[in-house]
Amino acid sequence: MMFNTDHLKRCIGTLESSLAFYQKAEPDSIDQEVFRNAIVKGYELTQETAFKLIKRALKDYGHGGKKLDATPVKELLRLAATHGLMTMEEVERWFAYRDNRNDTAHDYGEGFARETLALLPGFVMDAKTLESVLSIRFGDKE
Questions:
Q1: Is the residue at 71 inside a domain?
Q2: Would you state the pLDDT for residue 104?
Q3: N or C: lower Cβ tally within 10 Å for the chain?
Q4: Could you count the other beta carbons within 10 Å of the beta carbon of residue 131?
């Protein structure tokens, strides 16, 4: 099976671009709202892509695919730390990102946007770190 982090890199880049466009847009404009929506979707997609890659990586450590599919995301993150794919401090931050992401299903309002925007710089940094670790450990693996 091919292990490729290019899609995760692309998701992170798209999220960063959406944030840059959001910050340049006129406050309270329709453009800013469009970019805010792009940020929310990019944030969700980046997380989902990261979790799929974590599952794939955990298979190399002997974890079964069917069991991983049924494993809650927070437990996947703990397993990732157990195998040195992230630190416990990063896991704690990913818990906050996941909790925030789960809120997107219920609230796309200004409060949520402010919360998500406040988390984004750390999230982007942590997502880049994860992509780098996965790429170094598992890159070009078939």
A1: yes
A2: 59
A3: C
A4: 21
* 87 inside domain: yes
Structure tokens given for 48: 């989902």
Per-position b or e across 74-101, b if 16+ CB within 10 A of its CB: eebbbbbbeeebbeeebbebbeebbebb
Instruction: Tell which residue, 6, 94, 3, has the closest CA to residue 43.
Output: 94
Q: Would you say residue 107 has pLDDT above 80?
A: no
Structural domain tally of the chain? 1
Q: Which amino acid is at 142?
A: E
Q: What is the pLDDT of residue 9?
A: 97
Task: Single out the residue of 102, 94, 126 nearest to residue 15, CA to CA.
Answer: 126
The predicted pLDDT at position 35 comes to 93
Please tell me the distance from the alpha carbon of residue 15 to that of residue 93, in angstroms, as a whole number: 18
Full residue range of the structural domain in which residue 22 is found: 6-138
Flag whether pLDDT at 57 surpasses 70.
yes
Residue 58 has pLDDT above 90, yes or no: yes
55 within 8 A of 128, measured Cβ to Cβ: no
CATH number at residue 46: 1.20.120.330
Q: Does residue 1 form part of some domain?
A: no
